[in-house]
Design brief:
Blueprint (H helix, E strand, L loop, with lengths): L5 E2 L5 E10 L2 E9 L2 H16 L10 H15 L2 H18 L9 H13 L10 H20 L27 H9 L5 H10 L3 H6 L5 E2 L4 E4 L2 E3 L4 E3 L8 E4 L5 H6 L17 H15 L5 H14 L4 H8 L4 H29 L10
Antiparallel strand pairs: 1-2, 2-3, 4-5, 5-8, 6-7
Helix pairs in contact: 2-3, 3-5, 7-11, 11-13, 12-13
């Protein structure tokens, strides 16, 4: 029997199915296969989807739907949450963007997350379970949006599980030796790193810091605004607790005094505020020179650790960190206290192990 479907120049067979009419024009969905039967089976699958109410006239690439979802998410989410969504969604576009959303399976998505759990492409280390959950959550929202628009009949992300033994996210303070390296290694990113270390500024607060906020005579700096990286404009802190006056430690004063005041901003980047990408580029270059890895969050966490080790009470630490809720500060302090107990126990064990064995009835 001769083939029912057209054979193309590349050797594949081609079939088409009328899936709708838009503005008076017939809309067809084309399928391809290595054999006449493969095309027939694919067309049968499309007919089943049509019968279930799936709209086959719409675009089906994941990348296209992610962009469409992001346009709506930007208007509905907070700036910080949207920035996180945009980053996580960009990862999915890179890994699966060209895939047909009707063909992706839970296994396809889980394979990507398993690779990510083993190695984060940016850090080279295993990805924390919380971060993996964020990647999954963003794709889950995208697929819910696709489902609402009748392009798929189910959401495969709902069946994706996070690896049970995935690393737990920890935000450890850097060591005294690493702090000394930052103090002693001049670089474009040196002073910003020192401000996060010794004043606990967030990255957005750092990028918005102006010289009028810095009082070298009274050794204080005032945090009263933050940079909206997406819209490139200054804004008030998210909460009233974010507005605060922070003491400048004596060892930080010479660095600020030596910094040029050629611009309104304390840390301009080529005459303008830093962007997340320009900051990451500067920090990555600095860390390569220093020989260790950290993040802006870890530097700020180190400031909280220094407050704890200096004996600063938790309520004062809350105010200095700009936390809206003392529970956030308490979690860090509790973690540090528990770590200190573990270290003390290890020191005791080491001491006792080195001590002379006690006399017993057997060896007396």
């Amino acid at each position: 029997m001769p083939p029912k479907y057209k054979k193309r120049a590349d050797g594949r067979y081609q079939g088409k199915l009328l899936v709708g009419v838009t503005d008076g024009k017939s809309q067809y969905r084309y399928v391809y296969g290595k054999s006449d039967k493969e095309v027939k089976d694919k067309l049968a699958e499309l007919r089943v989807e049509l019968g279930r109410g799936v709209d086959l006239t719409q675009e089906r690439t994941l990348s296209w739907w992610i962009d469409r979802w992001l346009r709506r998410a930007e208007k509905k989410q907070s700036e910080d949450w949207y920035a996180l969504c945009e980053h996580r969604a960009g990862f999915w576009k890179e890994r699966l963007g060209r895939a047909d959303v009707t063909r992706l399976t839970a296994a396809d998505i889980e394979d990507v997350l398993l690779d990510l759990a083993e190695r984060n492409p940016r850090t080279g280390r295993p990805t924390a379970r919380k971060t993996l959950a964020e990647y999954r959550s963003v794709l889950d929202r995208v697929y819910d949006f696709i489902l609402q628009n009748r392009v798929v009949t189910f959401n495969p992300v709902r069946h994706v599980e996070i690896k049970k033994d995935a690393a737990r996210k920890t935000r450890d303070a850097i060591t005294d030796d690493q702090i000394a390296l930052i103090r002693n290694t001049p670089h474009e990113a040196q002073l910003p790193c020192l401000l996060m270390l010794y004043c606990g500024l967030r990255l957005g607060e750092l990028a918005a810091l102006t010289w009028s906020d810095v009082d070298l005579e009274n050794k204080t700096l005032t945090v009263n605004k933050s940079l909206n990286f997406k819209q490139r404009e200054l804004k008030a802190p998210k909460t009233a607790a974010g507005v605060r006056t922070v003491p400048i430690p004596d060892l930080l004063l010479p660095f600020l005094q030596a910094s040029p005041r050629s611009a309104l901003l304390v840390f301009p980047h080529k005459g303008a505020p830093y962007t997340p990408s320009s900051w990451n580029h500067a920090l990555d270059n600095y860390l390569r020179a220093l020989g260790f890895t950290t993040t802006a969050h870890c530097l700020r966490h180190t400031y909280c650790t220094l407050l704890y080790e200096a004996g600063v009470d938790v309520l004062s630490a809350k105010d200095l960190m700009g936390h809206a809720d003392v529970t956030t500060t308490m979690k860090i302090y509790t973690h540090l206290r528990d770590q200190k107990k573990i270290t003390a126990a290890a020191k005791l064990n080491a001491y006792l192990s080195g001590a002379a064995a006690p006399q017993t009835a057997e060896n007396a």
